[in-house]
């Protein structure tokens, strides 16, 4: 009982402090608060973030340009962001953009990855359904991104569209400077083979997405 009372009073003390910081809208204070929760994943919190994850709290150039301009950088900056993103794309060695759509479907459904409790060697998923409708048979999907149902059909299954889709998934900022979609290839979230597999899910004639 004593413990619970102590815990409750600690909460009562720390919550208003956190709200006050957010209320002041001091970006610097907010960044400090966030960073402090990541900095020291020590014994008190054995499930805390790994030290190398702390780097993810620091925005890279692209993120800075997009957040300081509320996603409207000037033209020259936008063009530079797109060119840098394009240059980061690594293409499949065999020149084929379509992998196995069945594996792609599993990747699109899988929201695991980049989390504390992931198995160390497990491949990450793409979590595509969190933001997109893809297969019309799937009932649960998010709407941050456009529907990708019938994607290949709508793009006439062309080779150019296969390549553009691979590029979009590898680094979406090559197409839209301040895209809201994760950079799956450039950030090492998905492998080249996994990106080929989700490209196939969208673009393959056999995929249920295009039935
Ligand atoms: C966090 C949300 C989010 C996730 C996760 C996400 N996307 Fe997107 N995606 C978007 C948004 C938003 C757009 C719209 C344009 C933009 O901002 O880049 C988009 C656009 C696209 C487009 C271009 C659509 C068009 O008609 O031009 C494709 C293709 C695409 N996403 C595929 C995928 C695939 C495949 C995955 C999973 C590997 C995925 N997305 C995961 C948010 C997301």
Summed up, the helix count is 8
Largest sheet: none
For CATH, the homologous superfamily of the largest domain is named as Cytochrome c-like domain
In helices, the fraction of residues equals 40-55%
* N/C terminus separation: 60 Å
The radius of gyration is 21 Å
- How many strands? 0
Question: Which CATH architecture of the largest domain is right?
Answer: Orthogonal Bundle
Which stretches are poorly predicted, pLDDT < 50 over at least 5 residues?
A: 1-22
Bound molecules: heme C
Q: Quickly count the domains.
A: 2
- Under CATH, the topology of the largest domain can be stated as Cytochrome Bc1 Complex, Chain D, domain 2
Describe this entry's structure for a reader.
The structure is a single chain. By secondary structure, the chain is mostly helical. It has two domains: 2-58, no CATH class; 75-210, Cytochrome c-like domain (Cytochrome Bc1 Complex, Chain D, domain 2), CATH 1.10.760.10. Helix content is 45%, strand content 0%. The protein has eight helices and no strands. The longest helix has 23 residues, at 2-24. The chain is globular, with a radius of gyration of 21 Å.
Write the layout of secondary structure elements.
Blueprint: H1 2-24, H2 27-39, H3 61-68, H4 75-87, H5 101-109, H6 151-154, H7 159-170, H8 192-203
Helix pairs in contact: 5-8, 7-8
The structure holds heme C.
């Amino acid at each position: 009982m004593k413990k619970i009372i102590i815990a409750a009073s600690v909460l009562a003390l720390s919550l208003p402090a956190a709200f006050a910081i957010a209320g002041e809208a001091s970006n610097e204070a907010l960044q400090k608060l966030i960073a402090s929760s990541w900095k020291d994943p020590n014994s008190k919190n054995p499930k805390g973030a790994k030290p190398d994850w702390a780097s993810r709290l620091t925005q890279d150039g692209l993120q800075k340009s997009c957040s300081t301009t509320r996603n409207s950088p000037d033209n020259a900056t936008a063009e530079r962001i797109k060119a840098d993103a394009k240059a980061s794309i690594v293409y499949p060695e065999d020149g084929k953009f379509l992998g196995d759509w069945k594996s792609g479907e599993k990747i699109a459904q899988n929201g695991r990855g980049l989390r504390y409790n992931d198995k160390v060697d497990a491949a990450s998923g793409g979590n595509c359904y969190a933001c997109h409708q893809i297969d019309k048979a799937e009932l649960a999907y998010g709407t941050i991104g456009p529907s990708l149902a019938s994607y290949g059909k709508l793009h006439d299954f062309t080779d150019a569209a296969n390549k553009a889709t691979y590029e979009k998934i590898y680094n979406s900022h090559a197409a839209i400077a301040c895209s809201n979609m994760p950079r799956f290839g450039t950030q090492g979230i998905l492998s080249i083979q996994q990106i080929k597999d989700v490209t196939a899910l969208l673009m393959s004639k056999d995929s249920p997405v295009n039935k």
